[in-house]
Amino acid sequence: MSEAQFEAYSQYKQYPLEEMQQRAVDFYDQVQRRRTVRHFSDKQVSREIIEQCLLAAGTAPNGANLQPWHFVVVSDIETKQKIRIAAEEEERAFYNERATPEWLEALAPLGTDAEKPFLETAPYLIAIFAQSYGITASGKKVKNYYVQESVGIATGILITALHHAGLASLTHTPSPMGFLNQILGRPNNERPFLLLVVGFPTQDAVVPQITKKTLEDIATFI
Ligand code: IYR
């Protein structure tokens, strides 16, 4: 068993109280501008920005620091096309057969359907995989912990980092997503978690008129 080694937490930064308050306000002001976008332009995005956002995602707190995630960044046109074809097939089955009337009713305000042209138009698709278990260099299985939570937090940081950099994203979850392993050649220990569509919104992009719950609705102070 390897022993814990500690070092001083020298990166920690403390701010004066007023500055803390202002930073909290400013951050909320920034993140509340984020909207899930479904109209993407084909304008290119430099790979360095995506790399930096992925580094941010990789800082997420996670189970036993095993970092049970893998991000496949797809910009290749033919691969995007394959993903669109497979995703739309699942989406058609979802909208026409699998989705319950209750689910379709919940989705109605978003105006979504089985057509996913943005899977080809947007410059990047980031397929996020959750590693149900790890594999050592010698091929031994390693148990991972809190995989869904860990990958969910990393994905949240990624979405926030992309937004902060000035990019739009769409959390797309064709279900089931097994086709992503096959198209992207990912191993059996990885389960597709989410497909993030990344790029710039079109000039005339519109978003659903929806509201967020109030603080009173989402939090209780005791
Ligand atoms: N995966 C489908 C349906 C869908 C489901 C939920 I829950 C959403 O918030 C949005 C869409 C689609 O992408 O159209």
The hetero compounds bound to this protein are: 3-iodo-tyrosine
Q: What is the fourth-level CATH superfamily?
A: NADH Oxidase
CATH architectural arrangement: 3-Layer(aba) Sandwich
Average pLDDT number: 97
Number of structurally distinct domains: 1
Number of strands: 6
Largest sheet composition: 4 strands, antiparallel
SSE pattern: HHEHHHEEEHEHEH
Strand content: 15-25%
Radius of gyration, taken over Cα atoms and rounded to an integer in Å = 20 Å
Low-pLDDT stretches are none
Proportion of helical residues: 25-40%
What is the 3D shape? globular
C-alpha end-to-end distance: 41 Å
- Per the CATH scheme, the topology name is NADH Oxidase
Q: What is the count of DSSP helices, taking H or I runs of 4+ residues?
A: 8
| Structural class category | alpha+beta
What does the secondary structure layout of this molecule look like, with pairings?
Elements: H1 17-31, H2 47-57, E1 69-74, H3 77-98, H4 101-107, H5 118-121, E2 124-131, E3 133-135, E4 141-143, H6 147-164, E5 168-172, H7 179-184, E6 190-199, H8 215-218
Antiparallel strand pairs: 1-2, 2-6, 3-4, 5-6
Helix pairs in contact: 2-6
